[in-house]
């Protein structure tokens, strides 16, 4: 059963595939946003209900929207919209763990077994052979719980979703799904994107600090950076205002009825993808992260030490963040994220001074890569 990958775990490889194409001439950064605006409009023409984007380029900020945030009323999207960011959550979790390493409270080369004894075991899984670093760069081999057939039927397809959209799942519940499967490969021998890795990473944060990953992210990142639109909802099913509705086909096909999936219990994503933010906040976070304001140089270098992301020729994966090469030769750091009815991207130049964050409030169409190429390569 092939559930559309964009739900919860849209790996950065999905974005890289959209970026593969003929080489283009690069424009000077920040020259204009015409190509970006055209790509946003094209996404709406392709079927995305609405899009919102914000660019930060040095001291200048530019925002644009297209389409609608409410299919019933026709209300447009807002540049201030808050939305579910899915797997972009992973960079926040990774940042916290790297901060803890800088404080001497753990090592990325610690085994998972050291911090979570007995949690990763059975069916060939062995936490004593997996390091925290391998969780963060997806080389652990641990099965991705969102690829489990029963989980997919329960939470991604129409009948299951409407029956179970308000279910609460604990991190232990999600890890147990993964442990019912054999590993994809021996630790450190290959790469496969697995949301289970970051559920475990969130559990490690709690074990090391005595506080939930949500508390640590708030205290270490959200509050210091004044990210007022960013939150960790836990089990809360609504998105704070201002926000738009989120829409999905809830099926393997991209045709058929469109469903409003705005309300759901994000505990099914946990520390792999539960967060809510805005485009401006994501720009600010990436600017601070890449600008060295959140991590010492040693830890930022570790975050940006990459491994091949599967067979992608344009993407390498670091620790919760990807190195993405555009057709025009520009290198960006970023990630995408998907959860029901919400597809998001944030990317930035190496110094964090030029960043782009945007969201589609639909999960079945739209060319995210074209938006990124439009902003950083121009036409």
From TrEMBL:
Domain of life where this protein originates: Bacteria
Residue ranges of domain Beta-lactamase-related in the record: 40-363
Entry annotated with the keyword Hydrolase: yes
EC number: 3.-.-.-
Signal sequence annotation: 1-25
GO molecular function term, any single one: hydrolase activity
Protein keywords: Hydrolase, Signal
Top EC class for this record: hydrolase
Name of the protein described by the UniProt record: Serine hydrolase domain-containing protein
Source organism of this protein record: Streptomyces hokutonensis
